[in-house]
Amino acid sequence: MAQRFATPLVLVAVMVVVWFAADSNFILRVASLVFIYGLAAIGLNILVGDAGQVSLGHAGFLGIGAYAVAIGPTTLGLHPLLSMLAGVVIAGLIALVVGRPVLRLKGHALAVATLGLGILISMVITNEAWLTGGPDGMPVPRLTLFGERIRGADNWFWITGAVLVIGALIASSIKASPTGRALRAVHDSEVAAMVSGVDVAKYKNIAFVISAIYAAVAGGLLALFDGFVTPDVAGFLTSVELITMVVLGGMGSVLGAVAGAGILTALPQVLTAFNEYEHMVLGLIMMVVMIGLRAGIVPSLIALVSGRRRAKAR
Amino acid sequence: MAEILQFTFSGLTVGAVYALVALGFTLIYNASDVINFAQGEFVMLGGMTTVFLAAAGIPLPVAAVLAVAATVGVGLLLWALAIEPARGATAVTLIIITIGASIFLRGAAQVIFDKQFHSLPPISGDSPIRLGGAAVLPQTFWVLGGAMAVLVALWAFLERTLSGKAVLATAANRLAAKLVGVNTSLVVGLSFGVSAAIGALAGILVTPITLTSYDVGTLLALKGFAAAMLGGMGNPFGAVIGGLLVGLIEAYGAGLISSDYKDAFAFIVILLVLFFMPAGLFGKRRVERV
């Protein structure tokens, strides 16, 4: 029980600290972006960290969520929240239908298949300009709730923060549930899981759908927050960023996913000071962290701390 | 008919480059199980270094040789500084490391060179040769011939030299290779060097046709990876066939159906192939052991 609420509570605590420490709207805006990408990374971590299935195309689902809140209100006159729901349902259904055949593949074949899936989604978004505005992207109407237009960095900070905490709570609950244990069994050995009565194909598909839903919600929030969408949101580089967040922060760790999102989102903002060396520094940090902390930042730190404690107890 | 022939030539040209990238993936994968996403950056480095050395007044052939040597140096450094220290890490961790390396190299190229598109003069001029109604650039034959030469050289290296046999032994069974005295860690380094050389050569040969810039590597790595998977990861013959197929599918798809979805056709075909043959066209089936 305590385990389930620990991560969301840590997140709330960090949010409060950031809120009081932030001395500009810029920091609040960066924090909101971290929360949004953190949400997507938490979802992807259920697929990659818990179930052990790689996806190099998850930005496709992010794109579906983002374009749903762009297209819904402008073309169909739907409320942004209803459009977001529609985007989530579409992303979930695509994941449900495509999941079974794709997740039959293992290892690098799965990587290529998900990569292809992501590229196909981003190509449709780029090329169907009549619907999506093509490579130039399209504006997203502002979100109105209860007759009020949502604006201001402080409002977005708490909206995205609240969704992140809810997402973390759900993910922690899934980890502690029989479904979570089944997913980890699939991760360790599919044959062994199958022998102990776990429907491997079904559980992999469940993880895929859950992660797609997280990504679509994050995509919808991202579009509403930015007020504009471009096909980059669904592109390969975004997919790479998402998986890097998961692996960098720590596979299987909810807090790790958010930490990874924090580093990968905040770092480029900091690195703009390095000007043209930005990419070199980013690549270097990715390599150094992964070589030094193979299990990812959060699990490695936890192991370090608990290892010290154990040594002291001895 | 002439149209089809035209598409075939352009498909084979691009396909030859994909094949060389896929070959680079395969060599490194066989030696170490690492999928090296910085493989596309080797192609970029080959082209860009030649362009800038040539611009500095060095004769083109010398510039090309220096560029290959420089890229091999980068490949060896990548192995020594990033892959070797991370030995034993999980596959996904290693993928992130090579993606980090590719971002780093792209960033470095952006600083050392620039962000412009560059070209090289074609080796045999640029007046197209008429062939059965299709107009073919002479450089096309250099690309195809170059790819063929690389294949023959690679085959000779693997089959005829002791180091090559060590690479084959490591690919077949790492533990057994180690037991008979092969330094498998050096073999991994060697495969990074050879892959870098192949990539650089591909980059130099194709630059007169497709141009080059600091960021051409990403898409090449994706296509090369997909081609290697299509042919069956780990099989050099499959990598070459996979690369040519991806090039041809793209050319026919773009020419006959829709050029907007050029990059999509290859992936649709790859998805279909993988659904029915998860190990790729020429890959070995693997059984999971508990």
What would the average pLDDT of chain A be, to the nearest integer? 90
- What is the strand content of chain A? under 5%
Radius of gyration of chain A, in Å, reads 19 Å
Strand arrangement across the biggest beta sheet of chain B: 1-2
Total helices of chain A: the number is 14
Write down the Rg of chain B. 19 Å
Shape of chain A: globular
Oligomerization status of the protein chains: heterodimer
Outline type of chain B? globular
What does this structure look like?
The complex is a heterodimer of chains A (314) and B (290). With 314 residues, chain A is an all-alpha fold. Helix content of chain A is 78%, strand content 3%. Chain A is built from 14 helices and four strands. The longest helix of chain A is centred in the last third of the chain and has 27 residues. In chain A, 54% of the residues are buried. The model of chain A has no long low-confidence stretch (mean pLDDT 90). Chain B has eleven helices and two strands. Chain B has a two-stranded antiparallel ribbon with strand order 1-2. In chain B, α3 packs across α8. The interface between A and B is large, with 48 and 46 residues.
List key phrases describing it.
heterodimer; A: 314 residues; mainly alpha; two-stranded antiparallel ribbon; 14 helices; 3% strand; globular; B: 290 residues; two-stranded antiparallel sheet; 11 helices; 2 strands; 73% helix; 2% strand
Task: Reconstruct the topology from this structure.
The complex is a heterodimer of chains A (314) and B (290).
Chain A: H1 2-21, H2 25-50, H3 59-76, H4 80-103, H5 107-127, H6 129-132, E1 138-139, E2 144-145, E3 148-149, H7 153-176, H8 178-188, H9 190-195, H10 200-226, E4 228-229, H11 236-249, H12 254-271, H13 278-292, H14 297-313
Antiparallel strand pairs in A: 1-4, 2-3
Helix pairs in contact in A: 1-7, 2-7, 2-10, 2-11, 2-12, 3-4, 3-5, 3-10, 4-10, 7-8, 8-10, 11-12, 12-13
Chain B: H1 2-32, H2 39-55, H3 60-83, H4 91-112, E1 129-131, E2 134-136, H5 138-160, H6 162-172, H7 174-179, H8 184-210, H9 217-231, H10 236-257, H11 262-276
Antiparallel strand pairs in B: 1-2
Helix pairs in contact in B: 1-5, 1-6, 1-8, 1-9, 1-10, 2-3, 2-4, 2-8, 2-9, 3-8, 5-6, 5-8, 6-8, 9-10, 9-11, 10-11
